[in-house]
Specification:
The structure holds 2 protein chains of 2 kinds. By secondary structure, chain A is mainly α. Chain A has 15 helices and 2 strands. Classes of the chains: A mainly alpha, B mainly alpha. The interface between A and B is large, with 41 and 44 residues.
Chain lengths: ~280, ~325
């Protein structure tokens, strides 16, 4: 753990995530408080970043074509994008741990079937699956969470499966089974708590991925629907005004890249901290 | 080796069959009526019923599936509900466009990624950190947004390159070199977008693989023998690091096609991905199913090719398979 705190990548990643998350939580305090507010549209639309409008309101990141404050939409969009990403990762971790745990602890046809299912879903391009699932129902934030969760569990399942298999051969598990405890209880109480460490890495990397995919779906109009701001539909609306107001599409994109970089670096640092052989190498 | 290839091909066929079945079920169970969309809000119930019968949508699901599967296997992929064109022609035009985009960007991003990763593993800590920051950023950038930013820079500001399509409006009137130049100019931005995001992932992985190999005892032996650092890197480290990299290349194909779907949508590149996005938005069932199947076939074929590639690079795998 101490190695992790000294890692600059982890420090940067955590700092960015904490900053963005607190801006999202405190959105009403750090912005105008209303992401869909439109005042005099003709007078306030396409204001450049750092401009002050006729009513004296300051727009740090300018305004879009409806005169809405881009910074306000960005922090409110962060609420949606971060929440959707986090919930989706949570869902995929739950599914992955279940499938991986069962596949690791019940050898035979169950394992074969679950591993085949995992490989099968892995072989399909995720965006294709997302498009299929997203096309099935009316687009909404809830649907995006479910769809991302259903298409993101495979790497977690593989990790947990490997981990559970190696733990199942350890004496403490054999002891628990020999005591006559039900296998389900042994899996949940004795094995899974020991198998979850690598899942943390996977979740950190998966968060960045899930947020990107949420914005992709919203960008295509299949995710979070306007006027609710999400980083994806903000970029989509900025697409039409690239010529006269490039900041509308640029700002959410830069925020997105920062968050994904933070998740990736945090994941990398966690991986190194959890992997003693790598730590030895970097020390050398 | 042949037996192994046979097993892999069979496994690939199972994946494709599974994808096709799953897609068929999903789109049929989805809410939203394609017939209503086709005929518009003014259609009478009788017209809707007639059209539904004409398209075979009034039969039970299992019957629809059996009929559809038989036709699909024979190469009759039906007619696009939204455009009225045969699906096969629609996708036949799209597959070469997607292969050109994905194939070229795959080759470019891995060559550049290998170069950057190899440079990093041999460079000092400062260069390494700088390049790491660059590659992790590229890795994090969403393709569709990078595409928009490149359009802004190269189309709207610099007026150098066209923003969408595969050919200009006047392409039919062009001949010879100017026609080729028009094509290449349209190819440039989608290719650059897909390649840039690919480089990040490839370079990060190459760097890791090179580091892993460098800590192996045989590298220290090679250094102790007095071989030049260049020779050690090129002959001993790079060759061994290439094995996981080529394996990754196969595993990253689904992600690459995922990226291509969005990049094609942004640049209106006439490939399978754009057709898929349009078909999903219009609930054009036959096109959705066929486009998904085509993507699955391309991914499976790519995986088989990388499998052969790994065996070609790694003599140990070749020998092991010959023995078994």
């Amino acid at each position: 753990m101490r190695a992790l705190w000294r890692d600059r990548r982890a420090a940067f990643g955590l700092a960015v995530l904490v900053l963005v998350a607190s801006a999202a939580v405190a959105a009403p305090l750090v912005s105008t408080g209303n992401p869909t507010a439109q005042h005099d549209v003709v007078a306030t639309r396409f204001l450049r970043p750092l401009a002050t409008d006729h009513a004296g309101a300051f727009h740090a990141l300018g305004t879009d074509r409806f005169g809405r404050d881009v910074w306000t939409r960005l922090v409110y969009g962060a609420r949606v994008s971060l929440a959707v990403g986090a919930l989706a990762v949570l869902l995929s971790v739950v599914i992955g741990v279940l499938i991986g745990g069962v596949a690791g602890f019940w050898p035979g046809p169950v394992r074969t079937a679950l591993l085949a299912l995992t490989d099968f879903v892995l072989a399909v391009p995720r965006v294709v699956l997302l498009l299929l699932l997203a096309a099935m129902a009316r687009p909404s934030a809830g649907l995006v969470v479910v769809v991302l969760g259903l298409t993101g569990w495979m790497s977690v399942a593989r990790l947990v499966h490997g981990e559970v298999r190696s733990l199942a051969a350890r004496p403490f598990v054999e002891g628990a089974v020999a005591l006559g405890l039900p296998r389900g209880r042994v899996l949940v109480r004795h094995i899974l708590p020991n198998a979850l460490t690598p899942v943390i890495v996977s979740a950190a990397l998966g968060l960045g991925n899930a947020i990107t995919l949420e914005t992709s779906l919203s960008f295509l109009g299949l995710g979070v629907q306007p006027p609710t701001p999400s980083w994806g539909n903000m970029i989509a609306s900025g697409r039409d005004t690239l010529v006269n107001a490039p900041w509308v599409a640029a700002a959410p994109g830069i925020a997105l890249v920062l968050v994904v970089v933070a998740c990736t670096l945090l994941g990398d640092a966690l991986q190194d901290a959890l992997n003693p052989t790598m730590r030895y190498q970097t020390a050398r | 080796m042949l037996a192994h290839l046979g097993t892999r091909t069979l496994a690939g066929a199972v994946v494709v069959a599974g994808v096709v079945t799953l897609t068929f079920l999903l789109v049929r169970l989805a809410p939203g009526d394609p017939v209503e969309r086709l005929l518009g809000p003014t259609a009478t119930p009788a017209q809707l019923e007639a059209q539904r019968r004409a398209l075979g949508l009034d039969r039970p699901l299992a019957a629809q599936y059996a009929i559809w599967l038989g036709r699909f296997a024979r190469g009759d992929w039906g007619t696009s509900i939204a455009t009225g064109r045969p699906v096969r022609a629609l996708l036949g035009d799209a597959v070469p466009a997607t292969l050109a985009l994905v194939g070229t960007s795959l080759v470019l991003s891995y060559l550049l990624g290998l170069a950057v990763g190899a440079w990093q593993s041999g460079a000092g800590p400062r260069v390494d950190t700088a390049l790491s920051i660059a590659t992790v950023t590229l890795f994090a950038v969403p393709g569709y947004w990078l595409g928009l930013m490149l359009v802004m820079a190269f189309t709207y500001w610099a007026h150098w390159l066209p923003a969408f399509g595969a050919a200009g409006l006047d392409a039919d009137g062009l001949t010879g070199l100017s026609r080729l130049a028009d094509r290449l100019r349209h190819f440039a931005l989608p290719l650059a977008t897909l390649t840039l995001i690919g480089i990040g992932g490839a370079a990060r992985f190459v760097r890791g693989a090179m580091r892993d190999v460098m800590s192996q005892p045989f590298v220290r032996t090679a250094e102790a023998k007095g071989l030049s650092p260049f020779h050690v890197t090129r002959r001993h480290v790079a060759r061994n690091a290439l094995i996981p990299v080529v394996t990754l290349l196969g595993l990253s194909l689904p992600a690459l096609f995922s990226g291509a779907v969005l990049v094609e949508a942004v640049f209106a590149w006439p490939g399978v991905g754009r057709r898929l996005v349009e078909a999903v938005q219009a609930r054009d069932y036959p096109v959705v199913v066929a486009a998904t199947a085509v993507t699955a076939v391309l991914v499976v074929a790519g995986n088989l090719l990388t499998d052969l590639g790994v065996a070609w690079i790694d003599p140990r795998i070749r020998r092991e398979r010959r023995e078994t």
